[in-house]
Structure of Hypoxanthine phosphoribosyltransferase:
Amino acid sequence: MDAADMGADLEKVLISADEIRDKLAELAARVDEDYAGKDVLLLGVLKGAALVMSDFVRALHVPAQMDWMAISSYGSGTKSSGVVRIVKDLDTDITGRHVLIVEDIIDSGLTLSWLVANLSSRGAASVEILTLLRKPEAAKVHVDVRYTGFEIPNEFVVGYGLDFAERYRGLPFVGTLAPHVYRS
Ligand code: 5GP
Ligand code: MG
Ligand code: MG
């Protein structure tokens, strides 16, 4: 799917496919340097992080394994509450492992701060976070994000893994929706 297929649903392209590719290469170079000589476990949070993960792991040179978690956070409407349920847990024993969480977007940071605490309690050697996108609201909860792709304004975005009612995840760019899509 591309911008043309979206027709009138798309308001604007916020971050292009080229910008995403260049940014992930830049972040991968930093991770290569920081994790030299270490075995890193990339932990993707389903479903949004699937596209970030697949491009990021290909840009990386250090040996990396991948695992996935699906978590659901209870909340009212579009806001998460920080009350989290594990839908699919890791298959990997992370004791002594260097875990790098790969995320699509951080909004309130509530889900993520829960995840970091959960992983640390399982005895990981280190837990760091990489996110493609970050909204200003993330400042409300303290989460140390080591690798951030883009700081974006407080707008609802779709594409590159991010959905609206499970649609638009396959877009190769990050964009905003025309108001008629979510007001109808
Ligand atoms: P929080 O950081 O508030 O705990 O939750 C972050 C999650 O909320 C993300 O993983 C994503 O699923 C969803 N989310 C937050 N902002 C947006 C957005 O602008 N667009 C989309 N599609 N999902 C978002
Ligand atoms: Mg996510
Ligand atoms: Mg969603």
Strands lie at 10-15, 40-46, 64-74, 83-88, 98-106, 126-134, 147-151, 157-158, 174-177. Residues 39 and 63 are 6 Å apart (CA to CA). The helical segments are 3-6, 17-34, 50-59, 110-121, 179-183.
